[in-house]
Amino acid sequence: MPAIPEPGDSTLPALFSILYVEDDPSITVLYERMLQHLGFQRILSAADGEAGLHLFEQARPDIVLSDIMMPKMDGLDMVQRIKHISPETPIIMATAFSEKNFLMRSIEIGVDRYIVKPIDRKQFDSTLLGVCRTLYQQREAEEYAKRKIQMRINKATANTLSEVANIFPNPTIIYGSNGEIHFINDAFTMMFENTDLEMLSSRKTTLDQLFLKRPGFLNSLESFHPEDTLANRVLVRKNHINTIYQVNRRTIVLGENQEHCQVFSFTNVTRLEYEKHKSQNLARLLREAIKVRMPAQKTTATETTPASSATPLLSNAELAVLRRSHLHKTPASEYINGLDEIVIGQVEELAEVDFELEEHLIELARTPNREYRELIAADMEKYARAMRQLVDFNDLAFALEQLGELIRSIAPQAININKFIVLMDSVRKDLADWRQMIFITREALDIHYLDSSLFSSCLQIQLDFAPGDSDGNDGTGDLELF
């Protein structure tokens, strides 16, 4: 186990994110400087308890530092709700001597540490470093527990296990002839939560019970189809994310007793499954486009009726962005140098939203329902909130906000789910490229290089799915997809 850094080691706070909630702007600036000096790199801030709770739900920081007396929602109410969401998150309260009457309640709701106002720099540093040290030790303990579980399960010889681990780099589990687990490798421990592994090792659950039960997937390894490899897929959920694995099975002989054991290995095919669904959706859209276009070509001009107008998704000012030409192109490297590090950090954290959006589109393709459309709309709003902090991208933020509202307003009977997924996937890719090229690699020669593509995709969705425009036809017989 690696040594835990000493309290004075500035690398320790860099491992964790922190949210501080304070309504006094002057104290907020002071906190930010002190946290940066201490070594924190991922710092979030909010001006009241209500905003702090919302930011915690979105970003899930490792540590929360908060004042008590604040407008809208006080610090203790916010902490109580945070502890309900994440009991293990350490909470530090900044309190004045006059607020001692809040002490008993703060103890009851689970406040971990206190900092007395006015802030003493030594106490501030030692308290924050102490919390970081505790978090680091907890993570090390969890890793040690995982290793201990693995050692308890692995009963085969060291040489055989080494050979198996080298042969099967994917998640692998070996069952003995009596159904007892003989071995799991490192990759297998990453498939499930620690609690699931503990229950599996103590025989309080079975591997089959850890699989999600969905049509088209194996409910049990006993249902493995030797002749139909495509049918051998399982669905696993970890950290609120579903992952598809292709299951492979083979028999090996272990030990002096020549025991015949079953080896199951799991290959992550989530992205392959997504690409397959996307190709199928594109093929269906092309067939539908042909069906729409051919009858329209036979229609005479006198039979043509005007299409009903849809409520515009974008105003004239936003639509003009599609046609604008930037006289001065700002390179990403130049643009980033003028931004606050906190804002850059929050944009970089949109990587999780990118992944969630992709997952939600995959799930919507499998199970078209309102729940997943709501989640997709929420993803658009998360991106919009981040863009709102960047003045240069307020127009895109507005378009994404309106797109989120439109997605929620689409009537189930009016949506062509395959077409919707293809168009939304175009938006997803553009947003991922926008974040990557401008804020991660910083290779974009013009920060607005994707504006037209994003606006065009938003506009196309509005044309195809806004209320009052159910068929997506532009009146010429051509179905404009992109």
TrEMBL record:
<dbReference type="InterPro" id="IPR052048">
    <property type="entry name" value="ST_Response_Regulator"/>
</dbReference>
<dbReference type="GO" id="GO:0000160">
    <property type="term" value="P:phosphorelay signal transduction system"/>
</dbReference>
<keyword id="KW-0597">Phosphoprotein</keyword>
<dbReference type="InterPro" id="IPR001789">
    <property type="entry name" value="Sig_transdc_resp-reg_receiver"/>
</dbReference>
<dbReference type="InterPro" id="IPR011006">
    <property type="entry name" value="CheY-like_superfamily"/>
</dbReference>
<feature type="modified residue" description="4-aspartylphosphate">
    <location>
        <position position="67"/>
    </location>
</feature>
<dbReference type="Pfam" id="PF00072">
    <property type="entry name" value="Response_reg"/>
</dbReference>
<feature type="domain" description="Response regulatory">
    <location>
        <begin position="17"/>
        <end position="132"/>
    </location>
</feature>
<protein>
    <submittedName>
        <fullName>Response regulator receiver</fullName>
    </submittedName>
</protein>
